[in-house]
Amino acid sequence: MNQVKAIVKSVDEIQNDIYLLKVSAPEISLTAKPGQFCNIKVSDSEFPLLRRPFSICEVDGDNISFMFNLVGLGTDILSKKKDGEVINVIGPLGNGFDLKGKFKNALIVAGGIGSAPFPFVIQAMGDDKEIACFAGGRSEEDIITYGMKNALTSTDDGSAGYQGNVVQLLESKIVEYDIAESKIFACGPTPMLRAVSEFSIRNNIECEISTESVMACGIGICQGCPIESRKDDSFVLVCKDGPVFKAEDVKI
């Protein structure tokens, strides 16, 4: 973990209210792993006070990128950063995805901005795995396929792709894959993660989920991001023990 003064390289609106922030932070990019995150202080002032957690979206040499949607004051400030500005970033934080297994098929399931960690995941997998991406949203404008490969889409309202949620899309396609050689990687809203976890457990498919929570510190000190463990009814922390967990290890 490093606390660095990262230099803004670019801020681009890649689709409506979805931004990609690229910063130079070699101390972080050197050790970052897919699925990890950083905590960003969006302003030099005392307001907003708390840092914001963002998944590492891409790593390119000394640069790291973060994808975010415009939802409040903090992200509005980030969206207006200029090239050359300096922001305070802590990272890489948390535990990422395990990409070293014997699985052949990587089934990536993303809901909305839950697509954010997967360009880095796909980049790290290289050509060793067969990758299929399932991206869902309420409507067409909510679907994000940036950095994805072989993407299939779904929408709740039927405005694009499969009509239904993204887990239903996965269920409709799972017969095309050898379950014993497949692994699911998922990130998105809690109801989606709950559904994909139940689906993977029911069908005995290896699955890792990237969870989300409001984080004050990002390093386990404040104890503000608990999630219930399936192992012994205790609690683990999203920031320190996650954000990535095996689906069978936590209750969503």
Blueprint of the fold:
Blueprint: E1 2-15, E2 18-24, H1 26-29, E3 37-41, E4 52-55, E5 58-60, E6 63-69, H2 73-79, E7 86-93, E8 105-111, H3 118-125, E9 130-137, E10 151-155, E11 162-163, H4 166-173, E12 182-187, H5 190-202, E13 206-210, E14 226-229, E15 235-237, E16 244-246, E17 250-251
Parallel strand pairs: 8-9, 8-12, 9-10, 10-11, 12-13
Antiparallel strand pairs: 1-2, 1-7, 2-6, 3-4, 3-7, 5-6, 13-16, 14-15, 14-17
Listing every helix as H and every strand as E from the N terminus to the C terminus, the arrangement reads EEHEEEEHEEHEEEHEHEEEEE
Average pLDDT over all residues: 94
N-C termini distance? 27 Å
How big a fraction of the residues is strand? 35-45%
Spatial strand arrangement across the major sheet: 4-3-7-1-2-6-5
Q: Catalogue the unreliable spans.
A: none
**Fraction of helical residues:** 10-25%
Put simply, the count of helices is 5
- Return Rg in Å: 18 Å
| Count of beta strands | 17
Structural class: alpha/beta
Largest sheet: 7 strands, antiparallel
Assign an overall shape: globular
How would you describe the overall organization of this protein?
The protein has 252 residues and is an alpha/beta fold. 16% of the residues lie in helices and 37% in strands. The chain is built from five helices and 17 strands. The strands form three sheets. A seven-stranded antiparallel sheet has the order 4-3-7-1-2-6-5. Strand 1 and strand 2 form a beta hairpin. The longest helix is centred in the last third of the chain and has 13 residues. The radius of gyration is 18 Å and the shape is globular. It starts with a strand and ends with a strand.
